Amino acid sequence: MVLKAGVVGLGILGSQYTTFLDEQPETQVVGVADIRSEVAREVGAPVGAESYDDYERMFQEQTLDLAVVATPDPLHRDPVMAAIEAGVPVVIQEKPMATTVEDADAMLEAAEEVGAWIFVNYANRGAALDRATYYVIREGLLGEVVYGEIHLDDNISVPRQLWGDRSEDWAAGSSTAYFLLSHVVDLLHWVMAPSEVTEVYAISQERVLGYTPDLYDAFLTFDNGAKFRVKAEWIKHIDGLVEFALDFSGSEGTLRYIKYPGFGEAEGWRANLSESVTAEALLTHQNALAEQDIDVRAQVQMGKPAAAAVAAAEIGPQVSLEAKALPKDEWRVVRGFVDAVLEDTLTPSSWQGYGPLPTGIDGLRQTQVVSAIVQSAEEDRVITLP
Ligand SMILES: NC(=O)c1ccc[n+]([C@@H]2O[C@H](COP(=O)([O-])OP(=O)(O)OC[C@H]3O[C@@H](n4cnc5c(N)ncnc54)[C@H](O)[C@@H]3O)[C@@H](O)[C@H]2O)c1
Question: Who lines ligand 1 at CB under 6 A?
Fold first, then answer.
């Protein structure tokens, strides 16, 4: 069976979706739509898709099995609603699901009314070491996670130049909360489930860019008492485009994951596990991850020798799982969505062991938490969530 796909919003991400779906034997891109008609023609021609400058017309003329929506952050609602109203049974959306809770609610409600599926592409969930993080936390190998600190920062060139002449408007319609913290909030929602964020306190800074906040820095409290600090900046003068590091403190172990390193850091992942994990169990976990193509090394090591004066604080032995850089698998989640449609299940054969694929329900929660971050910073108060 070949699924007929239409893609709306053909910028950085939409053009990548078009190429990716064209490369999958089970999908065919039959239509592409962008208000910039020359862009629609450029993206559509190489894959033999009809190009449109109006997605409504694409939805009327094409019978689609799935629609992708990759318009700028605040502009997801209208094309998603149009796709659902036109009878498209599956919509894949880029993150963030929405920039208002009202938009997220409306999309989810419309989909539920007609039994359509909304997927939201939280691409981090597909990366090997994000999945290893999920595994280690879910298996309780850190004990109970009680605290974490995550930062995801972009180079200042992102809000200034990433979208060419449109950059200032683009960034003004979004912020580091919607564009970056949506990733972090979903990642925590995924690894901490069924716990949910119930309390948010955040600050922002607005001194440099002028058209969008420079950064958001937030404290999230989960209903099981775990607390996280999550921070995202758009004013970093750094070598690369992105810096992304995640730390988890458990009652019995510690995980450090440097996904996109900054100055003086190297990409890597290490989970120092609970001392209750035996050498035999350690190998079982290494093998379980290897079966998922996640190549981590089991090790037992002594701590660094301490000076004689502090020898009483001898460290180790420490059991751990460690990995250097592994492929980021950026399209694994989208491939999972395609398999979900083909196999008619939210846990298709290519997505086993990592919970259901992210849907509009996860998207709504992500939108609620990110909106609470923005509101908390604006009103300088703690926001509680149901
Ligand atoms: N850029 C990234 O690195 C990145 C990474 C991950 C996710 N995303 C997400 O993907 C989405 C798209 O981001 P992008 O960077 O590709 O943006 P982009 O601006 O490059 O692409 C968006 C496209 O949508 C088009 N568009 C705007 N309004 C439209 C409308 N009403 N009808 C049809 N087309 C319309 C624009 O002309 C543009 O071509 C965003 O939600 C973003 O957060 C972006």
Answer: 8-14, 33-36, 39, 55, 70-73, 75, 94-95, 163, 170, 179
In angstroms, what is the span from residue 254 Cα to ligand 1's centroid?
Answer: 37
Angle subtended at Cα 68 by Cα 122 and Cα 25, rounded to the nearest 5 degrees: 95
- Nearest Cα neighbor of 101 from 381, 380, 374 is 374
Radius of gyration of the chain (CA): 22
Q: Is 297 exposed, middle or buried (0-12, 13-18, 19+ CB in 10 A)?
A: exposed
Domains and CATH numbers, the chain: 3-121 (3.40.50.720), 125-328 (3.30.360.10)
Nearest CA to ligand 1 atom 30: 35
**The pTM is what?**
0.96
The closest alpha carbon to 73, from 56, 43, 96, 105, belongs to 96
Closest ligand 1 atom number to CA of residue 182? 43
Chain segment 228-275, per-residue pLDDT in tens: 999 999 999 999 999 999 999 999 999 999 999 999 999 999 999 999
Residue nearest to atom 39 of ligand 1 (CA): 11
HSE at residue 280, side-chain half, CA atoms within 13 A, is 0
